[in-house]
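Students often ask why we bother encoding 3D structure as a string. The short answer is that it lets us treat folding as translation between two languages. Here is a chain of 310 residues written in the first language.
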Amino acid sequence: MKVLKESQGGQQAAVTAEDLALINLLSRKELKEEDVYVFSLRLCDNEVDRDQERFAPQTLEELSRLFVGKSGIFDHQWSARGQAARIYKTEVIFQPERTTKAGDGYCWLKGWAYMARTEGSKDLIAEIEAGIKKEVSVGCAVEQSVCSICGADLRKGQCGHKKGEYYDGKLCYASLEGASDAYEFSFVAVPAQPEAGVVKGAGSARTLKDLVRKNPGLAGELEQLEREAEAGRQYRKELKEETVRLGLLAGLGMERELLLGMTEKLSLAELTALKEAWGAKAARRYPICPQLEYGEKSGQPDSRDGAFLI
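And here it is in the second language, the structure alphabet:
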């Protein structure tokens, strides 16, 4: 899954001997202090963002290693013409005194990048120092988007929870876990993401909506998929509620919240099987009895009705 996230960047840093040694590991010729311009960036952090997603602390550690050597470009346009800088060092900064919305200590991934001081780069350097080029966005890949409520992968549709909503006082968000690659960091024009959600996929069409915008003829198919997905979510919700209801009637000795938690990660087939099993147990415990009894009646008329017989 490809992820793009905005952050802050563009803070000038001093060039040390250690910096030059690391930079020269990436350069083809020996560079001196006067040859380079160095600045630091806040690449990403573990706070729950406006998309109700966050990088897990372990993911930041994984990205720290992956981002070394990656390029800085503009607006995520993957072209060699747009390459302006390169990351040569990273570090995860921990600030335990600050608590995230997820309830743990705050941490963020800091990167140091360098640019060659040339006639063509002086305007960009001036914009960074003036604070005009400040916001950056990272492009990377993670393996899972984990629901904070039940631990299911949100991309696989196995979870009925909605990001941004609260369940028993706990916020539902997506934890981005298992960093598999880092692509680049990019200077962007707008500090906030123009569209909600992470950007997935490959190439220029990173989401289904991106694909439809480029191919309007597919709009009907996307609408149909959205309707079917909503119907599926509603069916799953009702199936879970009925399964839990039967579990309570079956007298399993468990509270509703525990039974509900048991159903969260089950597939539809597993939910259906569990519903039938608990339903059978509930039926044995509470057998259905008719309100009216139809026993055999005597052939002799009631003596009270004799006066009306002919």
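Translate back mentally: The chain has a mean pLDDT of 79. Keep this in mind for the problem set.
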